[in-house]
Amino acid sequence: MITAERKPFEQIKAVTDQFENILVVGCNTCVAVCLTGGEKEAEQLASQLRLQRQNDGVGGTVETVTVLRQCENEYVDSVAAQVEGKDLILSTACSIGPQLFADRFPKVRVAPAMNTNMLGVVKQHHVWTEYCAACGDCGIFNTGGICPIVRCAKTLLNGPCGGSQGGRCEISPDVPCVWQLIYDKLASFGLEGNLSRIGGPKNWSKSSSGGPRTMKKEGFEP
Amino acid sequence: MRSGSVLEQVLTDGKFAVTAELGPPKGADPQVIVDKANILKGHADAVNITDNQTAISRMCSMAAAKIAIEQGLEPIMQMTCRDRNRLAMQADILGAAALGVKNLLCLTGDHQSFGNHPEALGVFDLDSITLIRMVRDMRDVPQFQCGEEITFAPKLFIGAAANPYADPFPFRAVRLAKKVEAGIDFCQTQIIYNVEKFEEFMRQCRELGVTEKCKILAGVAPLKSAGMAKYMKNRVAGMDVPDEIVERLSAAEDAQSEGIDVCVEVINRVREIDGVAGVHVMAVEWEAAVPEILSRAGLRPGSE
Predict the structure, then answer these.
(1) Per the omega criterion (within 30 degrees of 0), is the bond before A201 cis?
(2) With contacts defined as CB-CB under 8 Å, which chain A residues touch B108?
(3) What proportion of chain B, given as a percentage, has pLDDT over 90?
(4) Which of A193, A201, A150, A143 minimizes the C-alpha distance to B132?
(5) Chain B residue closest to A209 (CA)?
(6) A42-69 burial, b for 16+ CB within 10 Å, e for fewer?
(7) Which of B64, B183, B191, B285 is surrounded by the fewest CB atoms within 10 Å?
């Protein structure tokens, strides 16, 4: 899923102080699962803002609404009545949410309350780890089901660099060397010899370097 | 001869090669290169010109290599994948060859988080192995990475690095074999203090046929103090400094002299290992130690 964390309150305050009537919009999908931007968190942020604005003598209103998915037009459009009369939409979704609100409500200013981090998995309760770079050309069958593009600090394609020691990455002892994981995984199948084949160079044109990507499902023309 | 470089000639002739290292300055003063070149001149067959070493921004290796050529040194220009994509790397390779660079060392590069711009975007469009293959194809086919023809091929002696002390250990010789398959002519290893482990690495290299296709230069470096030894042991990724060496430097009255002794001993030991074709002396910011080390080891350029 997409993970996102709330920006520091001081940063949110610096933006919201300029506006009078604010609508905090939660999203009940990925950010709700990672406990940072769902209905509950959006309401908490709205309460915090109300209190701060009351203390600082800032006028206006702070209302809140939550949609199921801020990445879909229908859900975003469904809160048009609440957007009416607002000066700022403050979205607690990943960056897709505020961008879609800006698109659907062109006369209203939009701000993100969140920093979007990554495509990750839940490693433990309340701990997420990046697993996918959305590079558009998945080759993890050859690497034991483990992605070296996003999980290696240098996006290596040909095995661990000279900084891999004791199964840890050179950038931090807290970071596993993903090529050690790949090596161990393939070795468990007796396939470590596969790593002697030269991999790459990677085709990055399918990744973010190729410009904004569009996906169309054939047979379902709009 | 693929490149016509002195290093290639020395290694092809079966002589024991000596290379040293010259780090470009964090400034635009060419005199720094001239001064370092004067220290190293006549002591090494070729000199590595580092490329934003440890991810710290410095004078570019191509310019420093050109200055070194003007001083009568033969540069081994280092190139990392960290700071450039394949377009920029190929442009720099052609430019360097046009300026008279004949040796190119292909590296992935230290991660940018270690340097003086930790917020920089690391490029890593290619890794060292795909860079090697690209350079080999530019020289031998000759073609760009995209397959387009190159009308005037860069003649380069292609090198890489190998670290016998990184993990997983059984993969280190395999990884060097991949670099050989990708197209290297020579490699320089990480600094060797643990000679026993290096011997095992070399045994694996011989088994894989690496030593027949690639000239391996053993990396050595003088330690200046016990503190430096401890730092390298504990803090530098991919280093293996045995306790006995740390203890020797701690106990020494003159740590610098002891450090040079250790370096000379390592050189003498690695020379005896089958498949070692030379040494690479990495005395960064202590270039002055290189002549003494080589003199005490009885090594002169192309001397054997």
Answers:
(1) yes
(2) 154, 156, 161
(3) 94
(4) A201
(5) B125
(6) bbebbeebbebbeeeebeeebebbbbeb
(7) B285
- The residue count for chain B: 304
Closest CA to B283 of B262, B300, B303, B269: B262
User: pLDDT tens digit string along B168-224?
Assistant: 999 999 999 999 999 999 999 999 999 999 999 999 999 999 999 999 999 999 999
Burial of B154 (0-12, 13-18, 19+ CB in 10 A): buried
A171 touches chain B (CB under 8 A): yes
- Structure tokens, B78: 């280092």
Looking at residue B303, what is its pLDDT?
A: 47
Tell whether A160 lies on the interface with B, counting CB pairs under 8 A. yes
Whether chain B has a CB inside 8 Å of the CB on A200: the answer is yes
Tell me the shortest Cα–Cα distance from A150 to chain B, in angstroms.
12
Answer whether A190 touches B (CB < 8 Å).
Answer: no
Within 8 A of A195 by CB-CB distance, chain B residues are: 171, 174
Query: Which residues are within 8 A (CB) of A20 and not within 5 positions of it... i.e. 6 or more apart?
Result: A59, A60, A61, A87
Spatial separation of the C-alpha atoms in residues B186 and A61, rounded to whole Å? 70
Tens of pLDDT, residues B93-110? 999 999 999 999 999 999
Task: Collect all residues of chain A within an 8 Å Cβ-Cβ radius of residue B126.
Answer: 200-201
d(CA B198, CA B190): 10
Q: Which of B201, B194, B196 is nearest to B172 (CA)?
A: B201
Q: A176: cis peptide before it, omega within 30°? A: no
Per-residue confidence band for B302, with pLDDT thresholds at 50, 70 and 90: low
Phi–psi pair at A108, nearest 5 degrees:
-105, 135
Q: Do A154 and B166 touch (CB under 8 A)?
A: no
Partner residue opposite B237 with nearest CB, options A159, A165, A192: A165
A170 vs B126, B182, B237: nearest CB: B237
Backbone phi and psi for residue B274, each to the nearest 5 degrees, phi listed first: -60, 125
Tens digits of residue pLDDT in B246-272? 999 999 999 999 999 999 999 999 999
Q: How many residue contacts between A and B have a Cβ separation below 8 Å?
A: 102
Whether residues B124 and A166 touch (CB distance < 8 A) is answered with no
Decide if A93 contacts A85 (C-beta within 8 A). no
B interface residues, A as partner, C-beta within 8 Å: 81-82, 86, 108-111, 113-114, 122, 124-130, 133-134, 145, 161-163, 165-168, 170-171, 174-175, 177-178, 181-182, 190, 237-238
Q: Give the gap in angstroms from C-alpha B239 to the nearest C-alpha of chain A.
A: 8
Whether A119 shows a pLDDT value over 50: the answer reads yes
ipTM of the complex in this document: 0.92
Q: What secondary structure letter does DSSP report for A165?
A: B
Who contacts A199 (Cβ-Cβ below 8 Å, separation ≥6)? A139, A142, A157, A158, B129, B130
CB of B164 within 8 A of CB of B197?
yes
